[in-house]
């Protein structure tokens, strides 16, 4: 069964996609960027603040599918500057138990939507 996940607690899509798609017990989220869902404003104060808001937005999308970070099995991180890698890792690590951390890739890209510095998507499985 396919369910489109939508929540006002995460930013509305800024293009032709949904916040997440649930196929049976597997959730595929779109990449989240640091848009505050309450104001629709970008929050790019520091890479740490930006990453926290991205994770908060992902948490809201997961919650809309009755999931938490414990259900996440894979993440994809896109960043525009690999020099931010350790700062992003420090924030990211707060959301996962290290022994059970999801699989992941981190890729430096030339640019990201709205010229943000980090975008993260996840795959989560209900088990
Ligand atoms: C922000 C996005 N996920 C996008 O533009 O695809």
TrEMBL record:
GO MF annotation: an example: hydrolase activity
Keywords, comma-separated and alphabetical: Hydrolase
Entry keyword annotation includes Cytoplasm: no
Top-level taxon of the source organism: Bacteria
Alphabetical list of Pfam families matching this protein: Ribonuc_L-PSP
Keyword Nucleotidyltransferase annotated: no
Family, per entry: Belongs to the RutC family.
Name of the molecule in the record: Rid family detoxifying hydrolase
